[in-house]
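Protein folds are increasingly written down as discrete tokens. With that in mind, we are printing a sequence and the tokens encoding its fold.
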Amino acid sequence: MKYVRVIYKGAPTWGRVKDDTIVFLRRAPWIDMSEFGQSMKFDNRDLLAPAEPSKVVLVGLNYHEHIKESQSATKAPDEPVIFIKPNTAVIGPNDEIPRYNFLDRQDYEGELAAVIGKPIFRASEWEVRQAIFGYTCLNDVTARMLQKKDVQWTRAKGFDGFCPVGPWIVTDIDPSNLKIETRLNGEIRQSANTADQIWNIYALTKFISDVMTLLPGDIISTGTPQGVGNMAPGDIISITIEHIGTLENRVKSA
């Protein structure tokens, strides 16, 4: 099933996609899937970020080939390297990514992300599987030179607009074997499979839940494969994940 957020009668509203129609839900689908009798024709231009997280938790260095290109490490870490983006970084599939002119380099990073549907803390793997509502695409936009300069990554990853998410949430798919591609102006720059991850989404979410409570709507992102690169104003970044869809954003000068 596919779930979206759109503006309806001036307010953000969740909906379930049925063929070419959005059927509106009373609340976020992980809370209440009941419909309230209204619908509209589906149009990509109406889409918002499909979740409103209290936090976005991400992992670095989760693909061996990306570790080789990153220069952040010489081998896979012994345990996941996690960091947080503030929810003010989240933008939707129709929003523009700000390209801050004071940054030397600002990279795209295509990733598979999970949306949490139930609160969990110190969860078992079974509880993690029950708590994940569905999956979406995420662009972990990064100020690369600040990442290299700072001891930790909050500043490099946390600018407003540095977390495009979407285009929707898809449920009932196997996240362990999905092709993921990132295109810059139509040219493939990243191409991998989630089967290449060092830690899968369930192991990552369990690890994170040992540290902090994950709330409904929170987003867990699973790291990027090799092929990250710089963006310039006017570029179009497209992240496509098998069985999910394509998250596309234009880059604008800021």
The chain has a mean pLDDT of 95.
